[in-house]
Fold this sequence. Notes:
It is built from six helices and twelve strands. The protein is globular and about 55 Å long. 40% of the residues are buried. The strands form three sheets. It has a seven-stranded mixed β-sheet. It has a three-stranded antiparallel β-sheet with strand order 9-6-11, with no helix packed on it. Strands 7-8 form a two-stranded antiparallel ribbon. The chain has a single domain, classed as Jelly Rolls (Sandwich), CATH 2.60.120.620. It is of the alpha+beta class. The mean pLDDT is 97. Bound molecules: fe (ii) ion. Fe (ii) ion (FE2) binds next to loops.
Amino acid sequence: MPQPxxxxxxxxxxxxxxxxxxxxxxxxxxxNILDKNLLKExxxxxxxxxxxxxxxxxxxxxxxxSIIEDSLxxxxxxxxxxxxxxxxxxxxxxxxxxxxxxxxxRGSGDPTGPWHTDESLREGEATLPxxxxxxxxxxNCWFYLNGSHPERHGIAVxxxxxxxxxxxxEGFEFTPDKSSFHLxxxxxxxxxQDLNVPGCVEIIADPGDFICFAALTYHTNMETKMRRHSIxxxxxxxxxxxxxxxxxxxxxxxxxxxxxDHLKSYVEEYVGFDFNWRx
Length: 279
Ligand SMILES: [Fe+2]
């Protein structure tokens, strides 16, 4: 399986080099950020919220936007010192707020997904929720709670695809909105769905590891061969203001009100997320 010639794995004491790796290559893995108890609590929380009736099927895909509003264990991530030190270093600020959060549950049999960037590269006025939230160049931060490995499930990235001047490898071209790419000659809007792309790195990580990739880095989920749980959370410096076109939900308001005092500053400028918002 394709692996990089440079180191992408960092101990939690070595935040500086982890940040450098993201800036240089567009991604990194920081080892052992979650302890066993929190790992279990997070998995259980995803199960409770995404499969409450225990009928999630093989090949399934389900997600829970703004999971921090309804999951107490997700809030505990903000108490992990090395994680917060990394976020402060990569964002260049200690004054941070929760930007987005998301949990994903995938069942065995879910195929490799389409390559894409999470950053909204569409120009002009925001018409979709991602246009509102994903134009800040914020890194994507994920916990793959069952680890990441091509033989089981997880994430693959295209190394060095995080810079504005990156273009798809020879034989490939961007979709018109640059959200994805495909083989030259295919339908202009189609998204490539195979790991056989030059520069592809199939990430290998353990369950407690933290995977970070830059805002633009192109990535995809590898074929899911076992049930898997993941949680993503993005923070943003409060200096970046979001003019959200949606009202804060009731659960968002309740969360802010009940947030523990020592973490309250992290939700001061929280705006929630309306997955169904369209303009
Ligand atoms: Fe993504």
